[in-house]
Write a structure and sequence with these properties.
disordered N terminus; mainly alpha; disordered C terminus; about 0% strand; about 325 residues
Length: about 325
Amino acid sequence: MSPRVCAITPRPAWAAATSPLTAAEVADGASTGAVALLFFLYGARLSTAEALDGLRHWRLHLTVLICTFVAFPLLGLAGKGLVPYVLTPQLYTGFLFLCLVPSTIQSSIAFTSIARGNVPAAICAGSFSSIAGIFLTPLLAAALLGNSGGGFSADALLRIGVQLLLPFIAGQLLRRWIGGFLTRHKRVLGRVDRGSILLVVYTAFSEGMVAGIWHQVTPTRLGALLAAEAVLLALMLTLTWYGAKRLGFDRGDRIAIQFAGSKKSLASGLPMASVLFGAHAGLAVLPLMLFHQMQLMVCAVLAKRRSRDPQDGLRERPGIPAGGAVVEELLSVG
């Protein structure tokens, strides 16, 4: 009896065109465009006049910058002692990266408003941190992460300039003509922001699936990461509050420093991670995503407690719906 011969039919061209790898490449290209659009809108929305006007409160802004780009990275470096017993080397890279990204703008304003602190200072501090982060985060990543960033190199700095800095500058230059349009369509553009961030998240996690990295994260490691981030957040909340008191800031300024100096921006960090880490961005952004949700929940409770403190020395900014702002921030991914 002659053996049965099974013919192997080659895959048609259309099947190859819809392979997961091709889909991932398409998503990656769309993510690159979304990142550029995101930073263009950041630049177009930032009022240069307001930022320059806030420079007169330079001590507060310098304090927030030191907390964001000095104290946080030092604590991140101290976390090296958690490897490999608590954190894997890959998770530690993401943990350290979250310590390098800039502060938030929206949630800092919202929580400072709820706590009846110095809201104008929180606006300027968050804006300065975001601008500084475009320059400082890649430089700090180059110095502290080195080649552990999954191929991080001088080329990554060039990509940061092309994908993040140039769109931001273009937005600033065009703000004179498109600022009114952005203000009138703020709600719609907010959805564009969140959609862009979700696309970046999808791309990063999809590339992680293609690379097969998610089997490295066990429930035990995930719990250990959450515990380490809880300690990190508690230390920064304590440092910003009591450190600002030792520096002689009044209560309203201390509230702004605490909420602006203890946070990390998911909206800025995710695009930067996608540029810096490429296919390795999945695990790199996981600590940042977890920390973002943790800081929102903890600071929402803390801001409510601060709002019941004695009102001496507190300053409010009328016209900012504090409760609605924080609810909107909690529901958003940015």
